[in-house]
Design a protein that fits this description.
homodimer, alpha+beta, 4-stranded antiparallel β-sheet, 13% helix, DUF1989 (chains A, B), Urea carboxylase-associated family protein (chains A, B)
Chain lengths: 195, 195
Amino acid sequence: MSETVTIPERSGAAFTLSSGQTLTVIDPKGMQVADLLAFNARDVDEVISSGRTLDYAETIRLTTGHSLYSNRSNILLEIIEDSVGLHDFLLTPCSRETFVHFYPDLPQHRGCFGNLAAALEPYGVLPDRIPVAFNCFMNVPVDGETGKLSVEPPVSKAGDRIVFRAAMDLVIGLTACSAPASNGGSFKPIAYRID
Amino acid sequence: MSETVTIPERSGAAFTLSSGQTLTVIDPKGMQVADLLAFNARDVDEVISSGRTLDYAETIRLTTGHSLYSNRSNILLEIIEDSVGLHDFLLTPCSRETFVHFYPDLPQHRGCFGNLAAALEPYGVLPDRIPVAFNCFMNVPVDGETGKLSVEPPVSKAGDRIVFRAAMDLVIGLTACSAPASNGGSFKPIAYRID
């Protein structure tokens, strides 16, 4: 079994994941969010697409058995295990601008967007290419009648996990989320393992 | 008053819209969808972002008073009038691949994606840069409990419209949607006017 890697609070990482390998994203302390991005490792212009994925899945609640699609309608990742069942695929990673918007009184932070941009830069991914992320453990209820959404604390408990299998060679971006609302104001690490 | 332009059924158009101008998108016969994209005319790497917009608006139901944001958190368009109040901002434009997925028995079509890619090519927009569109008049109810979504016929009637004001110089992509589910199986034109 491979080593478990920790992403420290309010930071991010990028790494390659080969076709057939699994990526386990773990919430080690509970109630923390991990923004996940995926790119075709051979051509980073092919990128995870919320719009394609939600269209094919016919639900905004993705869990075991669902696939995450690219902008070219290819499967990038399949969700093969999920101990939480509540994730978000509507919102873009928090950024300096979202901190100004939502937390004008808090110290500013480059957010998951800045962390992802820095981590993905060596792989040739430009900041403008960062789309809606698959936000593991992020709890964003939507009111079906009014359409209103809100960012609530995750329901994930310590040790909860979601497992993805790569359907092609990928570059992955992954964060331990930096936005207070996403994790109930308590910044914590995220762990991951590749098998 | 400027001329009203018709986009024939199952086709698309692209044009520039200057800061301060308004774009009126009209459903001339009722129950038809128009996928709308917007790019910064001076730098098409800045593009409409569903994830930023939904985050700032805190709702998936955008209407009069809401702004459509870019991937750089700038306002591209403001919705200043809306006679329908029911649009979609979750799904990517229908494409050849979505026709294969959803309508395997129908003649294939390049869809709104192909129409947008062709119309936007002269402006330097690559197909891989086409994100989730703001789908005018598209009716995609979401079940708040289960997360299930479905594509239902629009509630727009003949002559219904939505009016946007440009907050910067833009390149706009706009379609008369090609997917049977979006418009109740009846392909119709879309009209627009710039003032």
